[in-house]
From TrEMBL:
UniProt keyword terms in alphabetical order: Membrane, Transmembrane, Transmembrane helix
Single GO cellular component term: membrane
Membrane topology: Multi-pass membrane protein
Transmembrane domains' residue ranges: 33-55, 75-96, 103-121, 127-148, 160-180, 192-210, 310-338, 358-376, 388-405, 411-434, 446-466, 478-500
Protein name listed in UniProt: MOT14 protein
Keyword Nucleotide-binding: no
Source organism of the structure: Cochlearius cochlearius
Amino acid sequence: MYASREDIGYDFGDDSKVGSKPIKPNPNIDGGWAWMIVLSSFLVHILIMGSQMALGVLNMEWIEEFNQSRGLTAWVSSLSMGITLIVGPFIGLFISMCGCRKTAIIGGILNALGWILSAYASNVHYLFLTFGVTAGVGSGMVYLPAVVMVGQYFQKRRALAQGLSTTGTGFGAFLMTALLKYLCTEFGWRNAMFIQGAISLNLCVCGALMRPLSPKDLSEKYVVRSNSEDNQAKGLSHSAETIKSNGVLSEEPDKKEETTNEEVLDGVQHIETGGKSRSGRNMYGLRILKTVSQLTVTVRKGFAMWYSSYFGAASLFTNRVFVAFIIWALFAYSSFVIPFIHLPEIVKQYNLSNQDNIFPLTSIIAIVHIFGKVILGIISDLPCISTWNVFLMANFTLVTCILTLPLMQTYIGLAVVCALIGFSSGYFSLMPVVTEDLVGTKHLANAYGIIICANGISALLGPPFAGWIYDITHKYDFSFYISGLLYMVGIIFLLIQPFIQKKQPREKSTEEAQV
């Protein structure tokens, strides 16, 4: 029941005409430089997501330094983690205008600046601005391009590539926790943040590795994917007219706009050529005019693509399956975060602290999570396996574990459930793959930006909501039950929307036949 774009009768118009001539694949697709992109994304996950998972070390230092409540101080790390994801749609605009490489390099500088400025913090509110906002926005500007570039460079091994790159989060959690503890002990937390800011400049190197593919390579990659998807969907009776009726982004306005832009630049080029006989000062002015014109064209084209993806006649939101995916994302991430928050208290409640100190349950989740991403990625890339089905099965396993975890009262029982939570949550590596299958490579940056924005809202509001439930009920069980039920609602949306989307074109075709 895999819901690809063909299955749901939806397309975004990033088609290239499929000819009869064989297409020579780019050696960098699924190989060559593609693995450098995986390495770059892996390092980004270590430096950004790993550092955010290790912020508990700095949180303790901030509480002692500023003598503020734990709730207020915790908002510093929550803001940083939440903003990294919430700014996704706006980072999509930057990618449309500047490309992934430039966006990532600028984000690396901004992230490092946030760490360095935070070393001079005089109060918690100062950290809200420097670390929560500045470093958070910078992290978002690197994180989204790192995910998008892997999706662009891989066709046959997309799930495995995403799985390998996102394992950097687990490795980073261990490495950055140890590093920050050492730096805080040896140099103090202020110098530790300053040093971490210098280390974060390596994000610029990761961004420099994100060499963009040419439009020809992207079109060839899409043609190969279209051919494979067509072979899998021979049994479907969706006609071209039906697919177009569901909202295709027209290519004609883009071509007209490109023609107009070329005429403007040609005019400037003509003026510049004719002005060679003039003074050097006029030539300098013409070069500035040409540069400004090119920049204006790039900005206009990028903004037009970003605007059409969100607000155009065939925007991302006309895809009902994608909208259901957004609803799912609003509930999913908090269900993964809540166990990390409440597990220590549950262990204390059941008098299991001695066993947990030997091998913490949160460490079990983190370790198995790494293997889950890779194994689920390998399974999803098998030709006989549907990525969508693997994604749904992992979600069902995770929500079942969330609902049953409060029922476990022994360390062995909790350890088994935590291991299943860690493994099933490896579906995070499949999210970019599923998103790309729904909307296509061309719209991956904007679409995935919306998904991680929904995840950011979930991460930002989920833990406080769980704490509020505990304040009312004085039990941790209800936090798991309520979050699990909300998570189940999101999964149900994912299940029913593909069938509704399939049914509508047939009904419309019947009505047209009657007319």
